[in-house]
């Protein structure tokens, strides 16, 4: 009969100290906010992966992660960490459980806890912790730990964090991506065209765009990108300057048709914008097959069947850009004669 092998100590960070059997000790700062006190510290990512869980169900912590969270999103975080591209400085928020046996052993400057797989319930940062568990790279992670919370307190804290933190608008993120040089080729082309529509005084959308936020009566960067992306294959051999010139003439022609029926605000409706951009290849092909140049006058002529009568669908568009596109396309086809 073989002898039982002694249990190996858990690998820990050089700045943590093992106290007894699998107890870890870390330097902390004690913070008081309102009625709550919590500790701030940094913990190695592999320790977090081994001591955190995301559900209070009686199940394996790793299984709990996999059931509750999006593995693809967590894998993206892991890949980002392993590639060494950058940093994730925001804190993971945890609630110490009875299994942690967490206690202050240094007058608010040092805490110790047992490295139990159910030591900490993750209140915020679930995907980051899951991503750390999938990553090969080990790094230190900022952590906030509450101790002694009731289940009600944990639930309320989760609700507060996930409802009172306002996310950065997607419009602003797209704008910042350019500064960070994180843009894809498609985003770069869309961005250059959007900027030309925004800053050119002769643009048919001048004064009607909003680059960093959503604003009523204006076209946001996200709305414009969404409308333009299906057209990118059309402009694969063109630069942003040429693409802008042709699209500006097209939009100018569309606005001229709307002006006839006092529907000038139609262009800033996201459904309308997406529908008319989807219609552009069909209208452009008509101009090209007629042997004419892409100009405002030629686009006005090509679009004229849509504006022969009051275009009520442009004034009160359906919810689906696809439905509006199909109806506009049908209007063009019905006027075809030999």
Helix and strand topology:
Layout: E1 17-18, E2 23-27, E3 29-33, E4 36-44, H1 45-51, E5 52-53, H2 61-68, H3 71-83, E6 92-96, E7 103-104, E8 110-114, E9 120-124, H4 126-134, E10 140-147, H5 151-164, H6 170-180, H7 185-199, E11 209-210, E12 219-220, H8 221-228, H9 240-260, H10 270-289, H11 296-303, H12 312-315, H13 321-334
Parallel strand pairs: 5-9, 6-10, 11-12
Antiparallel strand pairs: 1-2, 2-8, 3-4, 4-10, 6-9, 7-8
Helix pairs in contact: 1-4, 3-4, 7-8, 7-9, 8-10, 9-11, 10-11, 10-13
Radius of gyration: 29 Å
Number of domains: 2
Order of helices and strands: EEEEHEHHEEEEHEHHHEEHHHHHH
Mean pLDDT metric: 83
Net shape: elongated
Estimated structural class: alpha/beta
- Report, as a whole number of angstroms, the end-to-end distance: 97 Å
Q: What percentage of residues falls in helices of 4 or more residues?
A: 40-55%
Q: Spatial order of the strands in the main sheet?
A: 3-4-10-6-9-5
List unreliable stretches of 5+ residues: 1-15, 17-21
Give the strand content.
15-25%
What's the number of helices? 13
Largest sheet features: 6 strands, mixed
Count of individual beta strands: 12
